[in-house]
Design a protein that fits this description.
about 900 residues; alpha/beta; six-stranded mixed sheet; 28 helices; about 10% strand; disordered C terminus
Length: about 900
């Protein structure tokens, strides 16, 4: 016999005390009756005392209570062996947590409604492995595939719009992440349940669905939201006030894109569920689409089971209590007269002896039998545990795990035995099985067992991360870093759970601090390696553009913070901006190295071909390097000063100094950028300014954002004005360096002879563009100056004609740049941009300016437009950053 709740058996020791109370009460009633009247009169005043009836009623009551106590202990006997096989599918729930999911066209909003329906779906997935991925601008695995539904539900509760690393809505990346997280080799169906409003930002979701279809992964897409008008996205501040999300000053309306979700489901042989704004049940989706999937065995084991027998004890216990109520306390009075039947008097002595024997026997048998069976079960389990502990100490972990499993059969579902099995499995190398058993043991009521289980779960996760990083974690790839940090995050969570159960667990607190320091140290190393790799990969102009873009973003952040009221959130954001400013200042020295490398003089010609009258090379180049290094030093000094002012919360002074650093960087660009690239980027930026001014004039932006937009537009137009002033001077300088045109007709081409080397292509002719720049260049600065002044005074309608006229002149000059000749054959590579740029004001004698084809110019213009779009997105993120949560160091 086995007992499910043997603790109840200790209540049987109360029965003798209860019997003594009954005997004492009966004796007190008899003594009271004798004091009430003379013994000769008691028989006439009162019915017979009925001592035997009292013993019978008391015995039935005690037996009934004893049987119910035994039933509460849930006895089980009649053992049998059962083959337990957990079968199921692998299912990833991919949940959109972008800010558009906060729209309230579905009550209370799309995200909370999706979480509620995921809970309903979870109840339909017994035995299935379920995982959770949250995505917005990037996907994050919140819960890997697991059968622990409690863990899944706890993780689901904490999912919100901050669960993804950055904003946006990249459905394709989420599908790819789920596909990578599913096993490649499988014996069961694999499913992705995608819950989103269908908005995507160029993440190529259909291509991701094709990859999933190749692996036979079905995608069931659930579309949430209104497909007609859409809904605005509410944003609540700290005071609870509601406003609506805006993009470039216009309220964002989120509409569901059904077409995309239908195509994704169709490609993978899945299904599209148009939930829209009505109520829907994911449980019905399971019954309609998922119930018939192929389920493979996840684990199989043979366990001895015992049948539940508490029903018998409940039945006989209730019968005894019912019998006690049917037995009268006193016998019926014997009728007198002619109607009295001839009834023999009862044999009281015999009944009394029988009642006493029944009560005594019932109490003794119940207490002895129940305690004996419980003790036998516990003794058998304890014996297996002792043997397992001895084998564990000898290093025989497989045998120890087998012994602990036998103890689990003898005393099922004991968290302490599950903990011992987990330790043996972990020591034997089966970490997955150990994690499953530790999770069971962590639910124990015993604080020590629960705390040690959480501690070991943290240690297993940390060990898995350590093996993933390898011997050189500093050289880990970004994917390995992300996976390893996710595992370390799980380890941290388990250590914190351990401390939540036992606050004085020294080992967990020590490991928690070690992990915190290690993660912080490695993130610094990874950031430095990434910066160094970026320095090596970028050329001079690319690095200069990167530093300029970062400095512009920091200046905009500081300028926006000046309009905010003082608060701890703002002070923390400004301090972080100061740290970023200090890190950016460290990039100036690599920029100076790039300048020196780009302007290094060419190596001297061999002695046989050198002219004895040629001047020594490098004099002009050294002067150019010295001049540009002076600009770079000025930028570095301004950035360092701005970082100190940001640390002191002096925002107004920091914004002015940051502008000085931008001016110094612009001076470097004006010196090193080749004329064709200089002209192409300036034209593209002017075109972007015209488009933005047209948008403002047409009323697409609201007045609440005008101040910030006008300042940004005016500053950008001022930069274009500086370039327009330099443009004719650069063109005149380039024309002076060009060789004079050849007079007379061009010589006929020489016929190619066998063995001759192919003739070098003729250099591109920049003379028409340069001459046009000299002619039209002086007309552009007055236009750009007036446009900048009008924008500064918040008059975009007055600035727009001058901007359009300046753009027309820039295009007229840029159209004369030489066209790239068509390439023959598909195997030729596209033209590459020059890596080492020479300053155009110091070329070698007779050397033409560097070449930039029309295709390259158009590519540059597209690149500048894209960078401007990203810049505007960063401005919006900065506004959300200031109004939303500020990232801080984790409180471990």
């Amino acid at each position: 016999m086995r007992w499910e709740n043997p603790i109840w058996l200790f209540a049987l020791w109360v029965l003798p005390l209860l019997a003594a109370v009954f005997v004492h009460a009966h004796r007190r009633r008899s003594a009271a009756a004798r004091r009430f009247a003379d013994p000769a009169m008691i028989g006439r005043l009162m019915p017979p005392s009925g001592i035997s009836r009292a013993w019978i009623k008391g015995g039935l009551l005690l037996i009934g209570v004893a049987l119910l106590v035994v039933a509460a202990a849930r006895p089980r006997f009649g053992g049998y062996f059962e083959q337990i096989s957990a079968r199921g599918v692998d299912l990833f729930v991919v949940l959109d947590v972008s800010r558009s999911m906060l729209a309230e066209d579905v009550a209370p909003n799309r995200l909370e409604r999706a979480k509620s329906d995921i809970r309903d779906l979870l109840g339909k997935l017994p035995g299935d492995r379920v995982g959770l991925i949250a995505f917005a601008g990037a996907p994050t695995v919140i819960v890997p595939l697991t059968t622990d539904q409690g863990f899944f539900l706890n993780a689901l509760e904490g999912v919100n719009t901050s669960s993804a690393p950055r904003g946006g809505s990249l459905i394709g990346d989420a599908i790819r992440k789920a596909t990578e997280s599913l096993d490649v080799t499988r014996d069961r169906d694999q499913v992705i349940v995608l819950i989103t409003d269908g908005e995507d930002q160029d993440s190529f979701p259909l291509e991701a669905a094709d990859v999933a279809a190749e692996r036979e992964i079905k995608i069931f897409a659930v579309g949430l939201g209104d497909t007609d008008e859409g809904r605005r996205i509410p944003v609540r501040d700290e005071a609870g006030n509601v406003r609506y999300l805006k993009h470039e000053g216009q309220e964002v309306w989120s509409r569901m894109d059904e077409r995309l979700l239908k195509e994704i489901a169709l490609k993978t042989s899945g299904a599209y569920i148009p939930a829209r704004t009505r109520a829907y049940d994911l449980g019905q989706i399971y019954e309609a689409h998922l119930a018939g999937l192929t389920r493979g065995e996840i684990q199989t084991e043979k366990r001895k089971r015992y049948a539940e027998r508490f029903q018998w004890f409940v039945f006989f216990g209730l019968a005894a209590l019912l019998g006690e109520t049917l037995v009268a306390s006193y016998p019926r009075p014997i009728p007198t007269g002619n109607d009295a039947p001839d009834v023999a008097p009862p044999r009281r002595g015999r009944v009394r002896r029988f009642g006493r024997a029944a009560v005594t026997a019932g109490l003794v048998l119940a207490a002895w039998g129940s305690a004996g069976f419980a003790a036998a079960s516990v003794r058998e389990a304890a014996r297996h545990v002792r043997e397992g502990m001895r084998q564990f100490e000898r290093g025989e972990y497989a045998e120890a795990a087998r012994r602990f499993a036998e103890a689990d059969v003898a005393l099922p579902d004991d968290p302490r035995i599950a903990y011992d099995r987990a330790c043996a499995e972990a020591a034997g190398g089966d970490a997955d099985k150990a994690v499953e058993l530790f999770q069971q043991a962590a639910l124990a009521r015993d604080e020590q067992v629960a705390a040690e289980s959480h501690y070991n779960l943290g240690s297993l996760a940390a060990g898995k991360a350590k093996s993933l990083f390898g011997e050189q974690p500093e050289a880990a790839s970004p994917e390995v870093r992300q996976q390893g940090l996710q595992l370390l995050g799980q380890a941290v969570a388990h250590y914190r759970d351990c401390l939540r159960v036992r606050a004085n667990h020294a080992a967990a607190r020590h490991n928690l601090e070690v992990l915190r320091q290690w993660i912080k140290h490695m993130q610094q190393i990874w950031a430095e390696r990434d910066r160094q790799q970026q320095r090596e990969e970028l050329d001079l102009l690319q690095m200069l553009e990167m530093i300029t873009a970062e400095q512009t973003t920091l200046r905009q952040a500081a300028q926006a913070a000046t309009r905010e009221g003082d608060s701890p959130r703002r002070r923390q954001a400004v301090s972080q901006a100061g740290e970023r400013q200090r890190e950016l200042a460290e990039e100036i020295q690599p920029l100076k190295d790039k300048i020196r490398e780009a302007l290094a003089p060419p190596p001297p010609a061999p002695s046989g071909g050198a002219s004895p009258q040629a001047p020594p090379p490098g004099a002009d180049s050294d002067q150019a390097v010295e001049l540009l290094h002076g600009f770079a030093d000025r930028a570095h000094q301004s950035m360092t000063q701005a970082a100190e002012q940001l640390a002191d919360q002096d925002l107004a002074a920091a914004v002015q100094v940051q502008q000085q650093s931008l001016d110094a960087l612009e001076d470097i660009y004006l010196a090193v950028a080749p004329f064709p690239q200089f002209l192409a980027t300036t034209t593209a930026r002017q075109q972007t300014l015209v488009e933005r001014s047209q948008t403002v004039v047409q009323g697409a932006e609201e007045s609440s954002d005008h101040e910030l937009d006008y300042q940004a537009l005016s500053h950008e137009q001022t930069v274009i004005h500086r370039r327009s002033e330099v443009l004719p001077l650069r063109a005149e300088q380039e024309l002076e360096q060009l060789p004079p045109p050849v007079a007379g007709p061009a010589p006929p081409p020489k016929s190619a002879q066998p063995g001759d080397e192919p003739a070098a292509p003729a250099p591109p002719d920049f003379r028409p563009a340069l001459e046009k720049a000299v002619e039209l260049g002086p007309r552009i600065p007055p236009l750009t100056r007036r446009a900048a002044d009008e924008l500064k005074n918040e008059r975009p309608a007055a600035a727009l004609p001058d901007q359009e006229e300046a753009l027309k002149l820039f295009r007229e000059i840029a159209d004369l740049l030489p066209k790239q000749p068509p390439q023959d054959g598909p195997s030729q590579e596209p033209p590459k941009e020059p890596q080492d740029q020479q300053p155009q004001h110091q070329p070698e004698a007779g050397q033409p300016p560097q070449e930039l084809s029309q295709q390259q110019a158009e590519a540059l213009m597209r690149k500048v437009r894209e960078r401007d779009r990203q810049y505007r997105e960063k401005q919006q993120e900065l506004q959300q950053f200031r109004r939303g949560a500020v990232a801080v160091e984790k409180d471990w």
